[in-house]
Fold this sequence. Notes:
3-stranded antiparallel sheet; 5-stranded antiparallel sheet; globular
Amino acid sequence: xxxxxxxxxxxxxxxxxxxxxxxxxxxxxxxxxxxxxxxxxxxxxxxxxxxxxxxxxxxxxxxxxxxxxxxxxxxxxxxxxxxxxxxxxxxxxxxxxxxxxxxxxxxxxxxxxxxxxxxxxxxxxxxxxxxxxxxxxxxxxxxxxxxxxxxxxxxxxxxxxxxxxxxxxxxxxxxxxxxxxxxxxxxxxxxxxxxxxxxxx
Length: 201
């Protein structure tokens, strides 16, 4: 019997400000990173074959191309995406070795603004796949069966897929490495050099 299958991976943002990583067309923040890793036992004890993920990603790319690859902040047990809770849209998906990678645009919706505020304040959230399918016990894992159907990815609070992190991307802007001590160094230099000569530091 098919059931809701929800898998979550950590979502971590680098120190670069979210506002510096925007879609050049509308200014919305962009993040990217792993969405899933097939053929490993995840935190829920489930195992997805690579063949299964390849089939579902190929189908899901049509949803991405049609500009419909939205997801929610927190996910229900439903197979329906509730538009009032949508916080993001997936703009691209690709394979990087054995990882399924995604580029995600955070939308300026009520839920998207909450997600952006959480990320801006260093809160770690997870990105979680939502699908429907059946399971079969195979050894120590529950193997996801061929009837699996990927519905979307949502942002949630509890991670289950190990070792997967997302990061901000730079869309058409130069990444600037900001020295967190630049202002302190400037004040220190000003004090030390007040007499017209600067000591070597």
